[in-house]
Hints:
This is ComF family protein. InterPro entries: ComF/GntX_DNA_util-trans, PRTase-like. The strands form 2 sheets. The protein has a 6-stranded mixed β-sheet with strand order 1-2-8-7-3-4, sandwiched between helices. The longest helix is centred in the middle third of the chain and has 17 residues, at 81-97. Helix 9 (202-214) links the parallel strand 7 and strand 8. The protein is α/β, with parallel strands linked by helices. The protein contains 10 helices and 8 strands. The protein has one domain (2-238). The relative contact order is 0.20.
Amino acid sequence: MHGWWREISGLVLPVACGGCGRPRTLLCAECGQALYGAGARRVRPRPEPPGLPAVHAAAPYEDAVRAVLLGHKERGALGLAGPLGVALAGAVRGAAAGSPAGAAEPLLLVPVPSAPGAVRARGHDPARRIALAAAGELRRAGVPARVLAVLRQRRAVYDQTGLSARERGANLAGALEVAAGGSRLLGGGRVVLVDDLMTTGASLAEAARALSAARERLISASGQLNAAVVAAPALSFGMNRN
């Protein structure tokens, strides 16, 4: 019921820009430019956790971009999944460009799962919703892509708020696994891990570990899976060493 009401209210309630609050538009041109206008770039957190995939992000996590992500994730502005999907699709293209093997294969977007309790509280899984929007955007551009939500939590984790990078890594270590039968599905294309936001990189590193443990041949020629996110801290862009 909760999720259903959010879907309906997103259609009938007055719309304001998710980034700046400007009335009568879901996302104004200026905030759209901040979200996906600059193009995806390789990002690295500091410190960089062991096992972190090569990550591309569409935008720094600040100002309008932060407001749009929080509006979608925490305030039920589900219509923002479309613009966020456009941004994530750009990051996925950047991530896939760094994987020379199997360039003609379809892209398989694997979202990092939210905790079940968080999904119940929000009424939706933000990363999965944005991944579906990104896959649709890629297909409209002629790039075969689909979402495989094969990762799941195998044990409970603590709320990450306030934890240091080291504490987040310890909190998430061994927390994810590939669901039964998921390994077979992962062999059908180039896998790109996706999430809405990278902070310390601990979640993406744990997701990469779980995928690699399930199917070793998913590891790319560079020794890593590739990953894409909508946003990352501005300092992560400053650490770009491409």
